[in-house]
Structure formats: structure tokens, C-alpha cells
Design a protein that fits this description.
The protein is mostly helical. The protein is built from 14 helices and no strands.
Length: about 290
């Protein structure tokens, strides 16, 4: 933060000396010269009319873009001083400052993803229909629906947890990362539909098959997102990839293998396929330590 009192004393001291020595009105036309000075200040002329070089010399210790707003604000408050214009040329203060553009951060992308995932979980709850009966046996038809919801809730929660840790390691993102994130959310948004069909026809062939295919596509989309983040953050990704943090790892490879086996076993016994899907959720229930330590 700039030292504003030091700036005021430096500028006012130099301005008074300059005004008393070099800009003193002549004897013949005192009123006209003062009027010209006031008019020039009131017009807000760019820069300072009493000597741009001298003013830059005074402001040399404070010559940075971060203090420009404070300088302009203070000069605007010093309107009784006729030797400084009310509007200053920003190029004269920042001629040597060329800051690099700030990288796009992941906060907005994380917030958008959290909102979409929250909507996905809410939609899955809406498939529960209130039982018509008042006894405990009226809940029996909802058991398959609850099991499907429990499985899908675990899957979405695991993706949200891992997504949080992975995006926390991203210092900047690009267009590829944003599209890869949307790709992941696209397949996750289809889970409520597959869950509802699986709940209505639990352990049936084609609902179980569709559920497994969507889980495979979600896993592949997450892998693409991880690669996109690694490309957008080469320094962080290089150090992380050496330890297998951005890589698939044994959990990722085992998950894809279990999903593929489950999809193939649908035509043998759909119940075994559901066990394979639940196995993937079980191994990811506790996030990997490598991912948490990113």
C-alpha cells in the first residue's frame, strides 16, 4: 500500500515551489493569467500543465499501477490547488509498468460444477413416490428404488469429492478444461434417468446395462478432465504425474475394468453386474491419499 501522506507532502511541496517561482502571474495581466490557470484545471486537461517531467520525478517512488487509483482520488480531492489537473494521464504514471494478464482461475468452474451436482442429487430424490398405504409394508416396493438411489448417490458423491481435490490443484484453467468439465457433467446428469429406470426394474438386463455404460462414460470423462488440467498446469502436473497423482493409478484402472466386466456380465446375471458397480463405489469411498495431498 502506498504511503499517501508522503505522496501528498512531496507533491504539494514541489508544486508550491514551482508555482511560486515559475508560474507567478505577470504584473500586467494577473487576473487573466489566473483565470487561464483555473480554466485549464477545470477542463480536466490530461497530465499536469506546470511540468509533466517534474511531476513524474516526484511520483517516481510511487510509480505503479496499484497506486494510480489512490493518486487520482487524492488529486480529485485537492481541487483548491490550481497547479494539478483533476484528470491525469495514466500512461504517464504507468509507462514502465506492463503487468502480465492474470490467469483464469477455477473458482467459477468449481461453483458451477457444485451447483450442477447438487441438482443431480436433488433430481434423484424426486423418484421416490409417497406410499399409498400407512403400514410398514407399503415401503417394500421402494426398496429397489432406494438401493438404486444409494448406489447413484455414492457414485455422484465420489465424483464430487475427487473433482474438488483435483480442481484444488489447478492453478489456472483453459477452454479445454472447461469443455472437459462440461463433458463430465453431461454424463453425470444422465445418472438420474438411469437410476430411475434401474429402480423400477431392479436387476433387469437392459436397465443394468445402461447404468453400467453411463458409469463407464463418466469414468472416461473424468480421465479426460484430469488430462486437460494437467496440460493447463504443466509445472504442477509434471510434479504430480511423476507420483501418479494425475494419472489413472491402480484405482482408476481397476474401476474401468470392474465396469466393463459388469456390463458384460449383464447378459449372464444382472445381479453380479450390480455387485461390480457397488465394488467400484466401495474402493473409491475413501479418496486416494495421493489425490488428497495434491
Amino acid at each position: 500500500m502506498m504511503d499517501l501522506p508522503a505522496l501528498r507532502s512531496a507533491v504539494l511541496g514541489s508544486s508550491k515551489a514551482s508555482y511560486s517561482s515559475s508560474t507567478k502571474p505577470s504584473v500586467g495581466r494577473p487576473r487573466r493569467l489566473e483565470r487561464r490557470q483555473v480554466d485549464k484545471v477545470d477542463r480536466g486537461d490530461l497530465g499536469i500543465w506546470w511540468g509533466r517531467g517534474r511531476f513524474n520525478e516526484v511520483l517516481a517512488p510511487f510509480n505503479s499501477r496499484a497506486v494510480c487509483d489512490d493518486v487520482r482520488r487524492w488529486i480529485a480531492d485537492c481541487s483548491p490547488v490550481p497547479i494539478i489537473a483533476t484528470v491525469m494521464n495514466s500512461e504517464s504514471l504507468n509507462s514502465e509498468v506492463d503487468p502480465k494478464p492474470k490467469p483464469v482461475t477455477a473458482e467459477r468452474l468449481i461453483g458451477f460444477s457444485d451447483g450442477v451436482i447438487a441438482v443431480i442429487i436433488t433430481i434423484m430424490v424426486l423418484q421416490f413416490v409417497t406410499p399409498r398405504g400407512s403400514d410398514i409394508s407399503a415401503l417394500k416396493p421402494l426398496i429397489p428404488v432406494f438401493l438404486g438411489y444409494l448406489l447413484s448417490f455414492t457414485v455422484v458423491g465420489i465424483y464430487w469429492n475427487n473433482h474438488h481435490h483435483m480442481m484444488r490443484a489447478a492453478r489456472q484453467i483453459g477452454a479445454f478444461v472447461m469443455w472437459a468439465n462440461l463433458h463430465l457433467l453431461f454424463w453425470l446428469a444422465l445418472l438420474p434417468f438411469a437410476t430411475a429406470w434401474l429402480g423400477q426394474h431392479f436387476a433387469s438386463k437392459w436397465p443394468t446395462f445402461l447404468y453400467g455404460v453411463i458409469c463407464i462414460l463418466c469414468a472416461l470423462a473424468y480421465w479426460i478432465l484430469a488430462r486437460a488440467i494437467a496440460l493447463a498446469n504443466p509445472e504442477e502436473a509434471f510434479a504430480a504425474s511423476r507420483r501418479g497423482r494425475f494419472g489413472s493409478g491402480y484405482k482408476g484402472n481397476l474401476s474401468l475394468l470392474a465396469y466393463f466386466v459388469g456390463v458384460l456380465l449383464v447378459f449372464v446375471n444382472p445381479a453380479i453386474s450390480l455387485i461390480c458397480y457397488a465394488f467400484v463405489s466401495a474402493i473409491w469411498f475413501i479418496p486416494s491419499r495421493r489425490l488428497v495431498n495434491l
